[in-house]
Write a structure and sequence with these properties.
Low-confidence stretches: none
Strand order of the largest sheet: 2-1-3-4-5-10
Strand content: 15-25%
Bound molecules: NADP nicotinamide-adenine-dinucleotide phosphate
Mean pLDDT: 96
Largest sheet: 6 strands, parallel
Number of domains: 1
CATH class: Alpha Beta
Length: 301
Amino acid sequence: MKILITGVRGQLGCELVRILHDGQSEIGSIPDAYNHAEVVGTDVADLDITDAQAVDAFIKNGSFDLVINCAAMTNVDACEDHEDAAYQVNALGPRNLAQACQETGAKLVHVSTDYVFDGTTPKERIEDDTPDPRSAYGRTKLAGEQLVQKACKQSFIVRTAWLYGYVGKNFVKTMIRLAKEHGAIKVVDDQRGNPTSANDLAYEILQLAATDQYGIYHCTNKGICSWYDFACAIVDGAKIPCTKTPCTSGDLNRAAQRPAYSALRNKHLEDTIGDSMRPWQDALAMYLQRYNDQARDTPQA
Ligand SMILES: NC(=O)c1ccc[n+]([C@@H]2O[C@H](COP(=O)([O-])OP(=O)(O)OC[C@H]3O[C@@H](n4cnc5c(N)ncnc54)[C@H](OP(=O)(O)O)[C@@H]3O)[C@@H](O)[C@H]2O)c1
């Protein structure tokens, strides 16, 4: 099997490479279909997914069986300030990949977000619920989903949330750094969602991609909390003494509006291949244990 991972230097891309190399993730072994898979990883410097011609040529010349798109503009406030640029990466880039996959017959996994929902009511969203994004990030990611589905029959859309991996920037690392540097953290307590380990997500993506049960899937670790609850679990789990102060979204002057309640339920996974995602507290505990080793060890595609 030959696999292309775009956005390979990001959090999820690195975990996919890691578990394809090791044959197993923190929550289980990956299917035998991936034994001896040839993995090609690209990031913006090698293959800019917004360049339709380059994407077309790369995928056609590469004879890939599976393409996993982890490339995205993920800075939510930067997307708000530069929606055209975000649309290029989050909508047209996936469309370019989808068109090439449709022509070559490669399967495509495209990763999306909980921010496609408005998050105005305290209800876990399932795949059949109607998206209504309130930010440029959410709008451009939703456009990407729609363009992928239109262009490529053999596609999986996998929506996830509040992602953290061993490589790259994320909320967990930021909280650890702030707590160590300042002995204090102040975190919003009025946005709730599902913290999700990139290693767990990578495992579930590979389970799914070994099937032909195409469609939209939600995939997050189990359980719901606020960013403040998550931050407390991080600094307590890392045993960093610090003062913890909850605040509201209104206290922060941020460009983009975030959903107040963006929790997802992995209903389609439950109904098809099964939902192996563990509670977020268990995933975080293992992450904190392994963090120092894994962060030094950047996997290579
Ligand atoms: N992070 C989260 O909390 C979160 C939550 C929900 C959903 N998601 C989704 O999950 C997926 C993976 O997220 P992640 O956290 O792993 O993202 P990430 O760490 O930001 O990685 C994205 C990678 O894509 C690269 N990239 C940007 N523009 C590109 C282009 N035009 N062509 C090729 N590569 C490009 C980035 O390079 P640069 O760094 O140089 O820009 C980066 O290496 C994304 O689809 C994201 O929308 C993430």
